[in-house]
């Protein structure tokens, strides 16, 4: 066999292999996307009451907030009805970036919050990751309707909320990010949910 024929055969086999690889990727893409969505939904459910939810991604306007940056959002549905919004927010903690998920009910109340990542000092600011702590529990059910904006501060700053012992900066950062998320929800509820404020 001459070199020209060998080159053509090699080129054809390479093209066939590339084509089959592309076709396999295209067929696997829906499964990969479904798996990603399942993982994302599981993460979103961690800040909501137990139940069956469907999520829809949200487009966020003016993502930069006074103390944080809104990274993403999802509208949570039960039986086709909007029941909550989950916002992912990023702020600056003591040790570095602090990312939180914030679940907000249609009445503007905090359903739950969970740190996704942090760079806080072990034994101090890292306590922010302890979901069972009283610090997180003091925030549940709070809203801007029953706690004026001036109260959304730590007690040592003249507000109503305790801090995590030894982690004032981390506590302040998380509290400010949650307050930003609640404010954003209140100001954009109609766009986020298709409903007017606290319907």
Secondary structure elements and pairings:
Layout: H1 3-45, E1 54-57, E2 69-78, E3 81-92, E4 97-105, E5 110-117, H2 134-137, H3 168-193
Antiparallel strand pairs: 1-2, 2-3, 3-4, 4-5
Walk me through what this model shows.
The protein is 37% helix and 22% strand. With 199 residues, the protein is α+β, with helices and mostly antiparallel strands. The protein has one domain. A five-stranded antiparallel sheet has the order 1-2-3-4-5, with helices on one face. Strand 4 and strand 5 form a beta hairpin. The chain is elongated.
Key features of this structure:
single chain, 199 residues, alpha+beta, five-stranded antiparallel sheet, 3 helices, 5 strands, elongated
What's the short version?
The chain is α+β, with helices and mostly antiparallel strands.
Strand order of the largest sheet: 1-2-3-4-5
Helix fraction by DSSP (H/I, runs of at least 4):
25-40%
Low-confidence stretches: none
Distance between the termini: 79 Å
Overall outline: elongated
Distinct helical segment count: 3
- Strand residue content: 15-25%
Instruction: Give the strand tally.
Output: 5
Order of helices and strands: HEEEEEHH
Overall residue-averaged pLDDT value: 82
Q: What is the total number of structural domains?
A: 1
Q: Radius of gyration, Cα only, in angstroms?
A: 23 Å
